[in-house]
Amino acid sequence: MPLRMSSLFVRTLKEDPVDAEVKSHRLLHRAGYIRRSAPGIYTWLPLGLAVLRRIEAIVREEIEAAGSQEVHFPALLPADPYEESGRWEAFGEGLFRLRDRKEADYLLAPTHEEVFTLLVKDMYSSYKDLPLSLFQIQTKYRDEARPRAGLLRGREFIMKDAYSFDIDDAGLDASYETMREAYVRVFTRLGLPYVMVEATPGAMGGSGTHEFLYPSEVGEDTYVRTAGGYAANVEAVTTVVPEAVDASAVPAAHVEDTPETPTIATLVDAANAQQPRSDRPWTAADTLKNVVCAVIHPDGTREVVVIGLPGDREVDLGRAAGTGMLGDGEVDLEPATEADLAAHPGLVRGYIGPGLSLEAPVLGADSATGLRYLLDPRVVDGTRWITGANEQGRHVFDLVAGRDFAGDGFIEAAQVRPGDPAPDGSGELELARGVEIGQIFKLGRRYAQKLGLSVLDENGKSQVVTMGSYGIGVTRAMACVAEEYADDKGLLWPINLAPAEVHIVATGKHQDVFDAAEALAAELEAAGHTVLLDDRPKTSPGVKFGDAELLGVPNIVVVGRGLADGLIELRDRRAGTAEELPVGEAAAAASARVREQYAALAAPQG
Amino acid sequence: MPLRMSSLFVRTLKEDPVDAEVKSHRLLHRAGYIRRSAPGIYTWLPLGLAVLRRIEAIVREEIEAAGSQEVHFPALLPADPYEESGRWEAFGEGLFRLRDRKEADYLLAPTHEEVFTLLVKDMYSSYKDLPLSLFQIQTKYRDEARPRAGLLRGREFIMKDAYSFDIDDAGLDASYETMREAYVRVFTRLGLPYVMVEATPGAMGGSGTHEFLYPSEVGEDTYVRTAGGYAANVEAVTTVVPEAVDASAVPAAHVEDTPETPTIATLVDAANAQQPRSDRPWTAADTLKNVVCAVIHPDGTREVVVIGLPGDREVDLGRAAGTGMLGDGEVDLEPATEADLAAHPGLVRGYIGPGLSLEAPVLGADSATGLRYLLDPRVVDGTRWITGANEQGRHVFDLVAGRDFAGDGFIEAAQVRPGDPAPDGSGELELARGVEIGQIFKLGRRYAQKLGLSVLDENGKSQVVTMGSYGIGVTRAMACVAEEYADDKGLLWPINLAPAEVHIVATGKHQDVFDAAEALAAELEAAGHTVLLDDRPKTSPGVKFGDAELLGVPNIVVVGRGLADGLIELRDRRAGTAEELPVGEAAAAASARVREQYAALAAPQG
Fold first, then answer.
1. For residues B354 and B331, what is the distance between their CA atoms, to the nearest angstrom?
2. Most-buried pick from A279, A387, B231, B510 (CB within 10 A)?
3. Where is the Aminoacyl-transfer RNA synthetases class-II family profile domain (chains A, B) (predicted)?
């Protein structure tokens, strides 16, 4: 039976949703695929569910083909395993927590590492049982601070999460590679362009991880790439650290009056006027900017820290927070508030510096202020800086790292810039934005260790299992497909994801037209195709065509005025082309076109 | 590819789970179909998931065939719609509630009437859009006080819930009947015996409802039936109310000393000795027993009430709580505690009565105690009772209902007994137990009214929509199938629900055996069958046979010792029979048997 527009539970809308920021959200809403139930929480209407199920089927097929077995965990889980792993705290406010009637703690799982680990521990005990790969396609929950862009960042969403279990590192490497290849097949079949980038493990821990990003301006992730093939999440880019500099010729640090230097630029001008360098002029990169920030730890603790970096760079709060260098778990990093500054009167706003000598530090855990002082990796020993002298209107010159000051450690906090060198030497970085649609992790032994998953090896010796974790955002991938395949008229589904293969539009008032449309639908269905039939008796042709374009079925057959001349029109939604065909040939032609579209998908991609 | 026991994520267990109360729970656990994650919360292992998916597919097919369209709602919902409907309170402790990071109230939905109502309100506005039927197969949450029996009463479970929307009562009747017929087809295809019983709407409200019960001793629901075809949940049985009695000849009430009458039996003996009736001896049915109970209202309020009923009957707390006569929403009813009694010193334990005259009531909202007094419907006007005189060691005789005392109302609180007359006159009731696997409700206009779902009728007049709600416990139905189809060796799946159609067991150490088993598996899969292959190289035949019996695939093919003579054994798991076949005929024979088993299912049932 075809889907019939006369009874299908769908209403197309002219208005965008009020909170719509991106095309996929606007179109999925207006075309009646999804409806918002709460911020970041959506209801799936019949057409949306049809597309979602097709995407799930592709994911399932490829992950099973990679040797993974499907299971299904609860979304509602007891807190204990997450307390053991430390993530009950580490997830911070992003975790939906609740209590049952007996006051026991539960959570709505954002991801399932802990319970997969425990399940395997419960079932398996020997190296002979490994390698093992398990997966589920399941509803996940994250209490996002800023749910946005429809399905792109939801609070209830569907993920495919898979986990591998191996006896040794070589096994994990092989499992990781197998899953990486499966991901390539999944995204290829979904028609989604992707970039695989190096990433940082973040709160998940582990030894290596890559993200699959759908390159798009609507993405929240910034990544970098080089013509030479390097690609990484900005959080994972490591600064090319200059070699230490010989500073023996640098004079002793000296404090100078620098009135009217409220900005880096005015400071540089003043420095060149008052204290010119013999070798070259001072630049912003010679100034050491000390930025006061506040780290919000997972337990809610607020810690004021100072980040020192060259004056020509800005702090990238997200990158710095993602490095894992600020503390355990998922931390937030914010600019310091007035209150933060007021609480530390040792900080002279506009003139903050590390102090004039190693003996009398102003910044650092052991200093007068007691504030952690983290440095950009470019601040290597021997580098020579102009920086605040901790006195109003004064700066210190010729302050040398290692000789006159030191930090509590380094942090990758500076914004990555186009033109920065790639860490692998493959050239200059360029920046791009993308949506994370998949991530693969080498978790290593972290979870197995904490939760006690060991098996006996060939020699009867207990070995901690090493694990991988592999996620695909299924609902998010659907949003990306909608983002990629759309034009200003509406959605434009690839044939293998469309809610129907052919959309038949019957126009006009003649019963003949409706009879012919019904016959054509029956013929196409008999040939194994899925059909959406617009059989609404009183709707105008214009509305019907508009709806067809908005809904995005790739092939549109118009049964209308031409029928009197024995003609039917076959439209290609994506190409925007149309051809008239004798009514007797229409089914065969539409069927052939559908087959061609599938064949084109299966063909090797350009 | 066959499922292979050598790599399949399954471990059979010899031990029952510690909390196992019923066969299905024991077997699904021991056979490695499910694992408990928390009380009433289960993880699905590959074999369990395979069966569950087959059950879901049958449910989906039949509900779609009934004209319902599939959608999918979130499990995590904002509280507002449930506050508007009153169920945020009415669900009481059974609702999982939580707050997001902005302190907004959410719930894990136990059922979705409110949001379906709002969705239709959002999308539709005309009578032309109706009738409409929508459904979902979705994870539901109820914080059961006593999760039990594995999947039979879970806290996270899968339900198919459908909702119908009609413009008038006739439409609702038709939608209800369509869904009833679909349910019959679903349960027939699942091979589940069922009884359709009248039930009470309870907290759901509405005008009519039936439950589908799987008759089983493990069920928590007691229902009644007659040889004449009546069937009802005990909560829905209505007492055949005797006609009012002419009490003009009954003497005035009189209080008597009745020492040493601690029980109804001793009271009856004393009455017959001291105050014999002229017409017949007193029996327990002539005594009026007044039972003190506590109603726990949804808001947590505890209300002490007194229920008066004939002394030969016990109070059925569940039935009384289910009648809806004790208050709005889902109430609990408990025996009164010492504290309850202590709080009402007017109650003389063992001698509680309504008082000696209508002018000086002891029980009732307007009485000295102020406690609501609810009467069994058999206490009709003119009936003559012996009951407590509210004095230690004394009873009142010839107390006549209507003349000397009255209640605040009637309640169906007495236990239904075998032999009681059916309300429809179809004979004497017999009692049986069952598991609720489905329920269909005529909700009527309650939700549409509260949430404002109206459409314009043919005359342009706004009409409140009338709704039905239809549930099937999908995971619970699976437990019932496991309950129904099992023997002392293990599970016994019907062919259309089994995780595989044929289980091939390769025994012994000869490579020939494994090669032949592989070839047979390949042949059966080529013929379109699903195969589970026990290819474990070092497992003993006994263990393999035991596992095959426990797992419950209906057809077992043994490739073992006989292979040297060119023979293979084909076992029928349910019949317990086996036949030897030439190896060349085995695949065809197994295939034929599978086809016969499907054909037998499709045949009209006995």
1. 25
2. A387
3. 35-494
Does one domain contain both A40 and A185? yes
Which chain A positions have a beta carbon within 8 Å of B115's beta carbon? 37, 43
Residues 6 or more apart in contact with residue B205 via CB below 8 angstroms:
B443, B444, B446, B447
A504 within domain boundaries: yes
Residue A330 to residue A144: CA distance in whole angstroms: 13
Say how far apart CA A158 and CA B74 lie, in whole Å. Answer: 11
Q: How high is the pLDDT of residue A206?
A: 63
B36/A42 Cα distance (integer angstroms): 29
Question: How high is the pLDDT of residue A604?
Answer: 60
What's the token pair of residue B153? Answer: 């009463």
Distance from CA of B225 to the nearest CA of A (A): 36
CB contact under 8 A, B156 and A76: yes
Looking at the structure of chain A, the number of domains it has is 3
Which CATH number covers residue A23?
3.30.930.10
pLDDT tens-digit map of A300-330: 789 999 999 999 999 998 888 877 788 876 7
Of the candidates A552, A527, A496, A555, the one whose C-alpha atom is nearest the C-alpha of residue A54 is: A496
Answer whether residue A374 is part of any domain. Answer: yes
Q: Which residue of A has its CA nearest to B75?
A: A156
Strand, helix or coil at A297? coil
- On chain A, the residues whose CB falls within 8 A of the CB of B8 are 69
Stated pTM of the model:
0.86
- A9 contacts in B (CB within 8 Å)? 69, 71, 123, 132, 134
Which of A41, A100, A124 is facing B143, going by the closest CB pair?
A: A100
Using pLDDT thresholds of 50, 70 and 90, give the confidence band for residue A606.
Answer: very low
Question: In the predicted model, what is the mean pLDDT of residues A481-488?
Answer: 96
Residues B208 and B150 in one domain: yes
> H helices within B310-378, ranges in order?
317-322, 338-342
Chain B closest CA to A301's CA: distance in Å? Answer: 16
pLDDT at A477: 97
Q: How far is CA B334 from CA A584, B181, B352, in A?
A: 74, 38, 18
Nearest CA in chain A to B65: A1
Question: Is there a single domain that holds both residue B222 and residue B75?
Answer: yes
The residues of chain B scoring below 50 in pLDDT are 606
Separation between Cα atoms, residue A233 and residue A221, nearest integer Å: 7
Residue B484 to residue B213: CA distance in whole angstroms:
13
Q: Note the pLDDT tens digit of each residue in A254-287.
A: 999 988 888 899 999 999 998 888 889 999 999 9
Cα distance from N-terminal residue to C-terminal residue, chain A: 37
Say whether both B276 and B338 belong to one domain. Answer: yes
Instruction: Indicate whether B279 belongs to any domain.
Output: yes
Query: Which helix (H) or strand (E) covers residue B216, if one does?
Result: none
| In-domain check, residue B536 | yes
Please give the Cα distance from A380 to A539 (Å, whole number): 72
Helix (H, G, I), strand (E, B) or coil at B128: helix
Query: Hey, are the CB atoms on A46 and B122 less than 8 Å from each other?
Result: no
Q: Are residues B400 and B450 in the same domain?
A: no
For chain A, give the mean pLDDT.
92
User: Tell me, what CATH number does B502's domain have?
Assistant: 3.40.50.800
Range of the domain at B395: 254-410
Asked if A267 and A152 sit in the same domain, the reply is no
What pLDDT score does B67 carry? 97
Query: Tens of pLDDT along A373-423?
Result: 999 999 999 999 999 999 989 999 999 999 999 999 999 999 999 999 998
The span from the CA of B151 to the CA of B143, in Å, is 14
What CATH number corresponds to the domain at position B389? 3.90.960.10
The phi and psi torsions of B297 (rounded to 5 degrees) equal -75, 160
Same domain? For B280 and B210 the reply is: no
A117 and A203 share one domain: yes
